[in-house]
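re: ur question from earlier - yeah i can do the single chain one, its not a big deal. heres the input i used so u can compare w yours
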Amino acid sequence: MVIQRLLRFKKIALRRQTFRRQMIAAISLVCVWGGLFLPLMSHSGAIAQTPPSSVQTSEVDRLTKTCFQLLQQADYSPLVATCTKAVEQAQAIGDRTAETYALINLASAYGALGQYFSAIDQAQQSLELAQSLGDRQAEAYSLINLGNAYQSVGQHAQAVEASEQSLQIVRSLEAASGTSPALGQSEAYALINLGSAYWSLGQYGKAIDYSEQSLQLTRDLGERQGEACSLINLASAYGELQNYPQAIKYAREAVQLTQATDNRRGETLALNNLGYALYGSGQLAEAETYLRQSIDLFESLRPTLLDAEKLSLFETLTNPYNILQNVLVDQGKTTNALEIAEQGRARALVDRLAQRQGTTAKPIALMEIQQVAREQEATLVEYAMVKDRPQGAVEGGDRLYIWVVSPAGSIAFRSVDLSGLTDSRGQLISATNPRLVKSTPNPADSLKQLYQVLISPIQDLLPASPDDQVVVLPQGSLFLAPFAALQAPDRSYLVEHHTLRMAPSIQVLQLTQQQQRPQAVKSALVVGNPTDDLPAAEKEAKTIARLFNTNPLLGKQATKAAVVKQMPQADLIHFATHAVPNQLDDSYGGLIVFADPAKGFSNLTTPEISAMQLRAELVVLSGCSTGVSDIINSDGAVGLARSMMTAGVPSVLMSLWPVADASTADLMQAFYQQWRPAIPNRANAMGLFTAMGLFGVGCLYQPLRRLYGPGFGSRNHRFTVITMLTVVLVLVIGLSLPTQPTAPTLDKAQALRQAMLTTLQTHPDPQDWAAFTLMGQAK
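and the output i got, formated as tokens:
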């Protein structure tokens, strides 16, 4: 896949959500993750045979039942913690059977929150434990969870294999001992998994066959949640076959059933499917109604979630926002579509920023969007990559939506047809980053192509003055696009015509503007080469530190503890270090590598940064690929920049690919010279200018002697005159200095533009100057 080549990190690539994966993940969330929770009651007899641990066993049973209830109630906040306690309690009493079923539940909990790699890990543990115990039913449960998790991360072949294995085990158990409700439930969810897997593989006939089997079985069992899942699968498959009457029929049944059983998660997806089918059949007004209901219902699930849970769960249910944009555009309601586009992006970050300010974030309204453009004195350009429009839509195929909001508040809309590209989304993504995409034979061609797609349709709407601000609000992988280097037909670069910066959403701009603290840089934290393998970074850090009259942390001095201690007090933070996407665990984000006296190196992670309270006006991440991270369609680029903004930083300067040492050093020095002139403050300069004054007056000794005559030769006379002149000279020079470093001559975005133009003169290759982008505020 192009995305895999783009990031070159398999784990992160698997997190990229296409439309199909979002739908499958959402179905999984409602179905197996929601239905395959085991209250342990069927195993309580075996557990109770261990008298010494009867109290502890009762606690395991209570915790497991609580897990089940929390998921049914969509109460996500304590879900994983409660299920984890059940596992730990079972391990503490040495009850491996209870541990197996608690692990199955924990896998379901992680899956319900969209944390699929953790779900796979727990499911594999429960599978191994079940196999060692010879517990075939627990083995089937574990395989169902594995199949579901594989399906959610796009590993469809593994999903089919695991689901078929679970189905074979269940049917062999039924053949040996007869049907039971527990075995029937397992068979039903294995069939549901297979229906979803074959839907994702485009084999809709098989998807319908397995879904019809699961529908009949769940109805026979009275398993209403499984019945809803089967109906949702059928609606999805018939929708793909453009059999919209059948899709609408099954979707309406799913809506009625989920409403009757108070299954809010299932109702959210059923309403989405109904809206999509109505959209495909041309019933736009009714489609809008149901899609808005789906969004409102999902919004009601958000308040209890933690940040990471919002990221993962929201990513599985972004379809109503995407489809509703299409429906509104096709009705000519393009400004309303902008509101929905905003409502469907960066919401987890918006919530965190609002919490810092002691408020609750509501979706941004149209008038507020216009007000942000006025306050920013900038042209806002928001992109939305529209996916999988149904064949019955007004304009079929994939499209790119672009909204342009002028500083005066006027809103223009453009729609770009991507059908001319061989692979509309994939090829567009592959053109975004000339350094990372090794398969691109000529990066210049990609930059020109991307200019034609992203800039040419709105060129007449952009400001004429290159000093006027343009804020780019990308979506998905467009966060990795080097907008500054996009090349016009006349071979000029976009940065030559416009001052650019980036933001995850307009509402993030609104909130970060409210937390701005205009101030001089009194305290700068500069860190360089903590790993002792970046000599150019160390030189860069020394140069930057001199500009701000501070001592940099270099080499082994730059420990994680030392850096973390100084970060909250710094007005400016500059890291010339290694920074990489996080591959160590299932969390989103990245790592900054620092020295450690005991271990050699220590990582500062995005969750640790997000938990800080920072006052810095700007953080510069001057390293390789510091802006490359998980791309979450619902929240933009989730990495170091996001964590810094969450911690209170309004502006982050980051890189999009591995940068060259020499050109980066030149760019950074040019940036700081434009933004913060290297003028020392009065306190540091007085000693210097006192010495200069004494030296200057000393040079006047002979002229003064001739002026005063022989009387000037007395020691007292000389001392008095020289002292007075020295004081006057020092005061004149010293008091002409500012009490603090001078205010910036340019704002951050303008300074970055000028630095790029300066660096371009000596390093003409865009790979050497276009990697850095400013996220957030300019002032």
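The domain at 524-678+745-776 is CATH 3.40.50.1460 (Rossmann fold). not sure if urs matches, ping me
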